[in-house]
Amino acid sequence: MTTLRVASLLPSATEMVCAVGAEETLVGVSHECDWPPSIVGRPVLTASKIGLSARSGQIDRDIRAVLKDALAVYDIDEDALAAARPDVIVTQDLCDVCAVSLDDVVAAARKLANPDVSIVNLRPLRLADIWEDIRRVGAALDRGREAQAVLADMDRRVEAVRERAARWLERTGDKRPHVLTIEWLDPPMLGGTWMPELIAIAGGAPLVTRPGDRAPTLTHEQLIGLDPAPDVVLVKPCGFPLERTVQEADALSSLLSPMRWPAVREGAVFIADGNAFFNRPGPRIVDSLEILAACLHPVAFADMARRHAGAFRRFGIRAR
After folding, report:
1. Is 69 exposed, middle or buried (0-12, 13-18, 19+ CB in 10 A)?
2. How many other CB atoms are found less than 10 A from the CB of residue 87?
3. Whose C-alpha in 71, 75, 93, 201 is 20 to 30 A from the C-alpha of 51?
4. Are 65 and 165 members of one domain?
5. pLDDT at residue 96 tops 70
C-alpha cells in the first residue's frame, strides 16, 4: 500500500496527524508547527507577513492593516508545496488570523501535479467540533481506529476533570467561580468558541461569551462594568508562549489594576501558554482543561498544577 503524503498547514492539524500515528506521512508543515518536537525540521510551507516581536497593540494594528487591504496574513510557499507532492492537505477556514486562508490553499492545490489532492478543512467552534476534526483527520489518513483510541483517552480525561470538580464543589459547598478568559491584550479580547465549555467542565461559570461565540473585543468601560465580576481571570493571548506574555506584564497590569474584581483583589489572575494550549484546537485541548481546573480549584487539582507547572503561573499585578 502506498503511504499517503500529508501537508499540514496549521499546528493543531499537525498534532492530530501525529496523535493518530501518522507522523511519518508528514511531508510539510506550517511555520508555526512545533509539536511534537520530532516534527521540527520538516519542510516549512507557510510564512507570516506579520512580525510577532512587536507588542500586542502593534501586532493587532498590523493585522488589521493587512486585512483591510484584502490581503492574506499568511503566504503559502507554492514551490515548497509542489516539491512536497502531498496527497492530502489539512487546513482551516475558522480564522484568517490563525492560518493561511482556505481560498489560497485551494488556489495553490490547483497548481499541483497531483489533480486528486484531497483538502481536509477544519472549522472548530466548539469542543465537539474538535473531536469531529480528529475523526475526520483519522479517516482521511486511514487511521480511523487510532483516532477513536485518541478520542477515548480524551473523553476519559475530560470526565475525570468534570467529576472531580463537581465532587469538590459539593464537598466544599462553594459556588462555581465566575471566570473571565482574555485572548488578547491590546485591544482586550475575551475567549469564546470552546472556552465557555472548558470553564463549565472545570467547575466554573463563564462570563460574557457562550459556547461557539467568536472572541469579542470589550472596551475599558465594559470590563469595569462586568456584573457579575470575575472571581478568576485567565490570560492566554493567542500565539503567545508564556514568556512572551510576561514581556507585556506592564500592559496586563495597566489593563487589570483599575478593575475592582474579586479576581484582582484576591490574586486569582493567571497567565498561561496561549500558543501551545487553549487556542490550539487539537488533542492538547484536554491539557488546557486540566490547566484551567488547576487555576479554578488549586487545592482539588494540585496534581494537575504540578503536571503542567511550566504552562501557567499566577500573575502578580504591578501597582500603577
Report:
1. exposed
2. 19
3. 93
4. no
5. no
For residue 51, the model assigns a pLDDT of 65
Closest of 201, 171, 216 to residue 291, by C-alpha: 201
Kindly state whether residues 12 and 89 are assigned to the same domain. Answer: yes
- Cα 208 to Cα 115, 159, 218, 227, 231: the distances in Å are 46, 25, 10, 10, 14
Among candidate residues 279, 260, 311, 275, the one with its CA nearest the CA of residue 215: 279
Q: List the alpha helices (DSSP H) in 77-143.
A: 78-84, 102-110, 127-140
Per-residue pLDDT band for 1 (boundaries 50, 70, 90) equals: very low
DSSP classification of residue 72: -
pLDDT tens per residue, range 32-78: 999 999 999 999 999 987 766 678 888 777 767 766 654 567 889 99
**pLDDT, mean over the chain:** 92
Is the pLDDT score of 127 beyond 90? yes
Rounded Cα–Cα distance for residues 313 and 84 (Å): 40
Mention every residue, 6+ apart, whose C-beta is less than 8 A from residue 230: 177, 178, 179, 180, 207, 261, 262, 263
CATH number of the structural domain spanning residue 209: 3.40.50.1980
In angstroms, the CA 292 to CA 277 distance is: 10
- Residues in CB range of 137: below 8 A, 6 or more apart: 13, 16, 17, 20, 90, 120, 122, 143, 147
Give the tens place of pLDDT for each residue, 200-231: 999 999 999 999 999 999 999 999 999 999 99
Residue 165 pLDDT > 60:
yes
In a domain, 133, yes or no: no
- Closest alpha carbon to 8 in 21, 23, 175, 271: 23
Residue 125: CB atoms within 10 A of its CB come to 16
In angstroms, the CA 133 to CA 150 distance is 12
CA–CA dist 133, 14 (Å, integer): 12
| Cα distances (angstroms) measured from residue 160 to each of 15, 153, 237, 279 | 23, 11, 27, 22
With respect to residue 131, please indicate whether it lies within any of the assigned structural domains.
no
Domain count for the chain? 2
